[in-house]
Amino acid sequence: MTASTRSGDLRGTEFVDANLSGSRFVRTDLSGVVMRAVELDGADIDAPWLLSGEISLLVNGVDVAPFVEAELNRRFPGRADRRAEDPDGLRAAWAMIERAWTAALDRVATMPAGTADVSVAGEWSFAQTLRHLVMATDTWLRRAILDIEQPFHPIGRPNAEYEADGNDMSVFTTTAPSFAEVLEVRAGRVAMVRDFLAAVTADDLTAARRNPWAPEYPETTLSCLHTILEEEWEHHRYAVRDLDAIEAGNGVPADDA
């Protein structure tokens, strides 16, 4: 498959009678795209920002975003509580995501050795996903909420934009840790969130915080916790999707430097 990079600017391009079948768009801005008389059989769209409630996706004139949101909440019990507003609600929401990840971990344990390091269609492996969630916790709990000067654990895995935006990568390991190491660090980060929520108060939730990526945007403890829960549920969705694909015979070992 021919690859294009972010240097290619196709804004405003009109495609007429073009054949884009089999194309793959990754980290691509398609907002405002208009498609007419298109063939979409087998198309697969994954846009987590669609679920923020502020973005629409019209299919034949129907905004399908609310239907997608409702179906995901049905498939993943507890997901609907990720935007809880009070301490008790947040504690219950975190307990549900912990249960969901425990089930996924139990599933991986019953699958062939090496499953945690299998990548599907170039996506992160299960182990890489857990490493990214370590970094997400470090970013939004340890850095944004607790204001720890050096919050990142070396096995954390940034997303592609992190390095592209000029951030220091030296804190992160350049070799893949064992799955056992990943599980140990991940369990510690899960416990950190659980312990923080056990003591958080309603007043704590309103405290002003700095957005770790864009300081000009105001945050609160509550909004940071919502981001953690969003990260957890979205990556859980990706992880179980890919476990389904692996069980169906798809996937290759992850390339992890």
TrEMBL record:
InterPro entries: 5peptide_repeat (IPR001646), DinB-like (IPR024775), DinB/YfiT-like (IPR034660). Residues 97-238 form the DinB-like domain. It comes from the Bacteria. This is DinB family protein. It comes from Jiangella ureilytica.
